[in-house]
């Protein structure tokens, strides 16, 4: 119970620590590179994207994309912090970006996971959910992985 309360408190802190630009429909937030931060990043997407007028299926897809990109940065880099960006372009495009601090492979590459493998499907899921995705060099040796989804606004 104490762990759950501490996680909620930590999540509330991180939720209030980000910045939102309503004119651009953009939110940027930085989280520690820890397993508990994956849930916080998902929660940020789940709370923000509906406020921007996107339907439930878009929220679900964006939440999964953020989760997979964040997890990859966590698992495959030596980052201490991970920067996340959500952006809505003209209410027709949703953009998700995750920037790490480096220390991982130069280019993220989708794997072909076997039936018994417990991991290795993240980028394949991202590819299936988005119109475009890619990566670019970040600052100080880090890497930025991004994904774009074309959507229909529901409200």
UniProtKB/TrEMBL annotation:
<protein>
    <recommendedName>
        <fullName>Histidine kinase/HSP90-like ATPase domain-containing protein</fullName>
    </recommendedName>
</protein>
<dbReference type="InterPro" id="IPR036890">
    <property type="entry name" value="HATPase_C_sf"/>
</dbReference>
<dbReference type="InterPro" id="IPR003594">
    <property type="entry name" value="HATPase_dom"/>
</dbReference>
<dbReference type="InterPro" id="IPR050267">
    <property type="entry name" value="Anti-sigma-factor_SerPK"/>
</dbReference>
<keyword id="KW-0808">Transferase</keyword>
<feature type="domain" description="Histidine kinase/HSP90-like ATPase">
    <location>
        <begin position="31"/>
        <end position="147"/>
    </location>
</feature>
<keyword id="KW-0418">Kinase</keyword>
<dbReference type="Pfam" id="PF13581">
    <property type="entry name" value="HATPase_c_2"/>
</dbReference>
<keyword id="KW-0723">Serine/threonine-protein kinase</keyword>
